[in-house]
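Hello,

Our lab assistant flagged a job as stuck in the queue for most of the afternoon. It eventually completed. Since we weren't sure the result was trustworthy after the delay, we are filing this so someone can double-check. Below is the sequence as submitted and the structure that was eventually returned. Let us know if re-running is recommended.
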Amino acid sequence: MASNADFVQYIADQCSGAGEIVAKKMFGDYGIYCDGKIFGLICDDHFYLKPTDAVREMLRTIDMRPPYPGAKPYFYIADVDDHGYLSALVKETCKHLPEPKPKKKK
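-- returned structure --
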């Protein structure tokens, strides 16, 4: 089941305090980016955040789940209604993720 576009936009809006948030359709669901870094996935109307040790300390509840069959576990974020909390999680996650690789020119 694919994610509802309204839910995807809601998550993007809730994370917007962290930077420029963009959701891109990927394999029927969405990858979500902050300032060019992919930090999470939205699959079947659920929000998943890439795991980092720094964010683990910030989570109200630690729930690790794979976003789709065969995937590595991500932090499953059920509390998506707190704008400040989500923005802080995203900002901290992105601090600890590597910079995206530059795209090769064709």
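-- support follow-up --
The delay was a queue issue, not a problem with the job. The result is valid. The first strand starts at residue 21 and ends at 26. The two ends are 35 Å apart (CA to CA).
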